[in-house]
UniProtKB/TrEMBL annotation:
Pfam families: TetR_C_43 (PF21597), TetR_N (PF00440). Gene3D superfamilies: Tetracycline Repressor, domain 2. InterPro entries: Homeodomain-like_sf, HTH-type_TetR-like_transc_reg, HTH_TetR, Tet_transcr_reg_TetR-rel_C_sf, TetR_SbtR-like_C. It comes from Streptacidiphilus alkalitolerans. This is TetR/AcrR family transcriptional regulator. Keywords: DNA-binding, Transcription, Transcription regulation. Residues 1-23 are annotated as: Disordered.
Length: 203
C-alpha cells in the first residue's frame, strides 16, 4: 500500500512545492520596507499620498502579500520608523570608533537629516503609536548615540564638555520639519553647520 502524502493526497510520492519559504517572506518584507522608505521620503506630504497599492507594485509583490506583512498603513510606517532609526543609532557607534570626532558628528548629523526626510509627513502616526514619545523604545538608545559622539569630541577637546544629549536632540528635531523637495538638503546642511558650530570649543 502506497503511503498517503498529507500535503498532496493526489500524489503520494511528490509533494506540492511550498507557497513560499521563510527566506522569500523575509526578502519580500525587506523589499516592501525599502520601497516604502523611498516613497515616503520622496513624497512632499509623506505617506499621505503614497498608496499601499503603489508600494506593492514597486516592490514587485501582490497587495495581499503586503497586507499579510503590514495589515495597515500605520503598521508599515511604524515598522519602517523602527528600522530606520536603529540604523541611525548603530551608525553613531561605528563613526565614533572610526572617524575623528568632528567628522563623526557631522556625518552622523547628515544621516539624521536623511532620516528626517523619511519622518516628515508621518510624524503624527509615529507620535500616536509611541504615545507622544513616552513609549518610544528608541528614545534612550538615540540619546545614547548622541552621548557617544559628544563624549568623543569632549575627550578630544574639540567639543564643549557637559553638553546634554537631550538639548542636541531638541536642536535636531527641526530637521523633520523641513519639507522634502528642492533645496531641502541644502537647508538641512545649513542648519547642521550652525548646530555643529555651537558645539565646538572654538579654541
Amino acid at each position: 500500500m502506497n503511503p498517503v502524502n498529507p500535503v498532496n493526497p493526489a500524489d503520494p510520492v511528490n509533494p506540492l512545492p511550498p507557497r513560499a519559504t521563510r527566506t522569500d517572506a523575509r526578502t519580500n518584507r525587506a523589499r516592501i520596507l525599502a520601497v516604502a522608505g523611498e516613497a515616503f521620503a520622496a513624497s512632499a506630504s509623506g505617506a499621505s499620498t503614497t498608496s499601499m497599492t503603489s508600494i506593492a507594485k514597486q516592490a514587485g509583490v501582490g497587495v495581499g502579500t503586503l497586507y499579510r506583512h503590514f495589515p495597515t498603513r500605520e503598521a508599515l510606517i511604524v515598522e519602517l520608523y523602527h528600522q530606520e532609526i536603529q540604523k541611525v543609532i548603530d551608525l553613531a557607534h561605528t563613526l565614533a570608533a572610526s572617524r575623528l570626532p568632528i567628522e563623526a558628528l557631522r556625518l552622523w548629523f547628515d544621516e539624521v537629516a536623511r532620516y528626517g526626510q523619511l519622518k516628515y509627513g508621518v510624524a503624527e502616526v509615529i507620535h500616536a503609536a509611541t504615545n507622544g514619545g513616552l513609549d518610544d523604545e528608541n528614545y534612550e538608545p538615540f540619546l545614547g548615540a548622541i552621548a557617544v559622539l559628544l563624549d568623543a569630541g569632549a575627550t578630544a577637546g574639540v567639543l564643549k564638555p557637559g553638553i546634554e544629549p537631550e538639548d542636541v536632540l531638541l536642536q535636531l528635531s527641526v530637521l523633520w520639519r523641513i519639507p522634502p523637495g528642492p533645496g531641502s538638503r541644502q537647508r538641512a546642511a545649513r542648519i547642521l553647520d550652525l548646530v555643529v558650530d555651537g558645539l565646538r570649543t572654538h579654541r
